[in-house]
Amino acid sequence: MHIRPATRADSADIAILDDIASSGLASHVLESGVRDGKYDRPLEFGRDGYAFIDGPYSWKNVLIAETADGIAGMSLSFELTGGLGDSGLPDPVLEPLEGLKAQAVGTRLIDSVAVYTRFRGQGIGRALVEAELARATGPSSIMTDSANARALSLYQSLGFEEQARAPLVAFSPNQTATQWVLLTRPAVYVCGAPASAH
Q: Where is the N-acetyltransferase domain (predicted)?
């Protein structure tokens, strides 16, 4: 397995993996492109968005994990500046997430981490987060839902600490989580503890 920068040709996989990372939230948001008649399916809208729209949610901000069997996973991150470009599409379901983002301005947000089901259990998710941390020039942040114990454990093992929670507005009938969780990590981390400033 190796990790490489994404290319525009990876956009379909990125759209699928983003939907996996968000437990279907991406498809919910992308339904707007179907409702207005521009696209037949949400993931088609997502693919075109990643391929052709500049901004935080672009293939240019994605890392791809690849094995001999093809693409296994991806991660997407960008600097949170507090500007309009930080925000996703307007949607009431996203408002709590936008509020957490506002608390993490000045960090590099690891917005999405996902691994296809058949590649899980091989350390690919950890490798992607570590690669994201390696390209951060300052503190990092990441969010997940309160029911994702595996993700919370992984992020905490990599030095992230919980900073805030916000209510999760249901977007699927099968949801068990009730909150979004924001975790942050200092810029420099040495031997399992934040490095002292000099």
A: 1-186
User: Which residues does 170 contact at the CB level (< 8 Å), separation at least 6?
Assistant: none
Beta strands in 27-89 (DSSP E): 62-67, 70-79
Ordered structural domains, the chain, with CATH: 2-188 (3.40.630.30)
**Judging by beta carbons within 10 Å of its beta carbon (0-12, 13-18, 19+), is residue 149 exposed, middle or buried?**
exposed
Q: What is the DSSP string of 43-65?
A: HHHHHHHHHH--SSSSGGGEEEE
Structure tokens at 84: 């309009």
Strand blocks (E) in the chain = 2-5, 62-67, 70-79, 108-115, 140-145, 161-167, 179-185, 189-190, 193-194
Kind of pairing, strands 140-145 and 108-115?
parallel
Q: pLDDT of 139-170, one tens digit each?
A: 999 999 999 999 999 999 999 999 999 999 88
Cβ atoms 23, 30 nearer than 8 A: no
CA distance 76 to 119: 18
**What are the tens digits of pLDDT across the range 80-133?**
988 655 555 567 888 899 999 999 999 999 999 999 999 999 999 999 999 999
DSSP reduced 3-state for 128: helix
E strand or H helix that includes residue 95: helix 95-103
